[in-house]
């Protein structure tokens, strides 16, 4: 029995990026630790990048995912893109971050 293409299973491909410094042994113990790791991946980008860090139960980083690459001054991310990467990596928790390519830190809670 041949299945109609409409019923075929779609595979989700997850791209693994090799880095010069593996983050798998990196443990997040403070907001500064998370900021340092995020900055090493997205600080020099010319567009806003929304980064998801996936952590295990020991707060060790088990994955990093660029959920969205936006424009010069905006990055709109759908929650499903954040949740999908966390579920696929079996994450116990997540940390999200983004940067300002202009270098101007916008104070939202002023």
From TrEMBL:
Belongs to the UPF0758 family. The keyword Lipid metabolism does not apply. The keyword Metal-binding applies. It comes from the Bacteria. PROSITE patterns: MPN. It holds the Pfam family RadC. Residues 27-110 form the MPN domain. This is DNA recombinase. GO terms for biological process: proteolysis. GO terms for molecular function: metal ion binding; metallopeptidase activity. Keywords: Hydrolase, Metal-binding, Metalloprotease, Protease, Zinc. PANTHER family: DNA REPAIR PROTEIN RADC, UPF0758 PROTEIN YEES-RELATED. It comes from Peribacillus loiseleuriae.
């Amino acid at each position: 029995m041949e299945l109609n293409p409409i019923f075929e299973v779609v595979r989700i491909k997850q791209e693994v990026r090799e880095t010069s410094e593996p983050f798998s042994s990196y443990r997040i113990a403070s907001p500064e630790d998370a900021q340092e790791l995020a900055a090493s991946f997205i600080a020099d980008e010319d567009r806003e990048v929304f980064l998801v860090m996936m952590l295990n139960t020991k707060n060790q980083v088990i994955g990093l995912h660029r959920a969205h690459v936006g424009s010069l001054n905006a990055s709109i991310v759908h929650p499903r893109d954040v949740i999908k990467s966390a579920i696929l990596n079996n994450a116990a928790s997540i940390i999200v971050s983004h940067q300002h390519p202009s270098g101007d830190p916008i104070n939202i809670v002023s």
